[in-house]
Amino acid sequence: MPERALGGVRVLEYAQFAAGPYCAKLLADLGAEVVKVEKPGAGDEARNRGPFLNDVPHLEWSGLFLYLNTNKLGITLNPEAATGTEVFKELVRGVDILIEDKPPQLMKELGLDYQALEAANPRLVMTSITPFGQTGYYAEYKAYCLNSYHSGLLGYLSPRNSPNLDREPIKAGGLVGEYSCGLNAALATLAALYSQRATGSGQHVDVSKQESLISLQRVFAAFYPNQGINPTRLAQATGMGGVMRCQDGYISVNFVEDHQWQAVVRLMGNPSWAQDERYKDIAFRAAHWEEIEPMISEWMLSHTREEIHRWTQESCPSGPVMSAEEVVNSAQAKARGFFTNIDHPAAGMAKYPTAPYIFSETPWAVDRSAPLLGEHNEQIYCGRLGHTRQDLVRMRQAGII
């Protein structure tokens, strides 16, 4: 197998659910060795989230957990238990990167804040992913992923142009906010790793979920302090396009810019109504989208998703709205080899998404499926830290592992 991009890099993951594990997964899938620390007996919170194999809740059957933890080694450890902190520091001494998502005050109370861990490992890159960052008024506030998403402006702007002026803010489907935060954390971690390799020194990467998500709407966030404009979901125009109905379902297409609008007009056969001089102005089109949409919709309804998507690819951002089954079986996914079969000792064989990028010289690969709870305790504690099997029995009885 070709050398992997992050081959030789060692990572300790002390995080759960989605953002932190996704950050670590991105590194693991590029070849880093990631040792995942889970709570004894219960494991990562994601193990209790579906979808589950056969719709039966089980710690080893969570599709979310199985996806987020490919290529990782798994151990159990409770750093809050007696002597558990020292065991954690033993692990930290042997890694390049620590990814954690615990409240800042808790890490400080445990003696596991960056200042303490830097003393144990001066080269350590410690990436902390928290709702509001390590400092500031909200640093110790608790937040679930729903709170983080809405604190980051995304919900404030969704849904746009709703006819119901009392419509509550909504969250995009799934865990898109958590994945975005995990991706931002991974990029920042790689930058810190690059610096570590160049200087020999580590650093603390402070990732605020709120700031990560606000960055996705940075243009709108800048309107208020710079122009006094408050672009809410109730007043913000969508521009032109969006999700529109067609002959066999829905397609998402946008034609805000002039060249995009002109391309769509040509596709429709240059209808007479589109020659109205007023429609040449972007602002006018946006303000009068309600009168334009029905005429475009009539054309859309006479064509399929695939036809419209193919015709607009060179001129407008577009994409058919698909079900999960359609995505897996699409010609694009198959041609790109985007899904692969992975066999898990408890959950069996299933299709998994691969990587959102293709590296020719250091390709993405699956070396192992997600770990069973505590699967690699003996390998790590005995083989790497020098503990005996009797030590493991005592640590298990004490609630440490």
Low-confidence blocks of residues: none
Structural class: alpha/beta
Largest sheet: 6 strands, parallel
Terminal CA distance reads 34 Å
Strand content: 5-15%
Integer tally of domains? 2
Q: Let me know the number of strands.
A: 11
The CATH superfamily of the largest domain is identified as Crotonobetainyl-coa:carnitine coa-transferase, domain 1
List the helices and strands and how they pair.
Layout: E1 10-14, H1 19-29, E2 33-38, H2 63-68, E3 72-76, H3 84-93, E4 97-100, H4 104-109, H5 114-120, E5 125-130, H6 145-151, H7 176-199, E6 203-208, H8 209-214, H9 218-227, E7 241-246, E8 249-254, H10 258-267, H11 282-287, H12 289-300, H13 305-312, E9 318-320, H14 324-329, H15 331-336, E10 339-344, E11 348-353, H16 377-382, H17 389-397
Parallel strand pairs: 1-2, 1-4, 2-3, 4-5, 5-6
Antiparallel strand pairs: 7-8, 8-9, 10-11
Helix pairs in contact: 1-7
Could you describe the 3D structure shown?
Helix 1 packs across helix 7. By secondary structure, the protein is of the alpha/beta class. The chain starts with 9 loop residues before the first strand and ends with a helix. Helices cover about 35% and strands about 15% of the residues. The longest helix has 24 residues. It folds into two domains: about 270 residues, 3-Layer(aba) Sandwich (Rossmann fold); about 90 residues, formyl-coa transferase, domain 3. The strands form three sheets. It has a six-stranded parallel beta sheet with strand order 3-2-1-4-5-6. It has 17 helices and eleven strands. The relative contact order is 0.14.
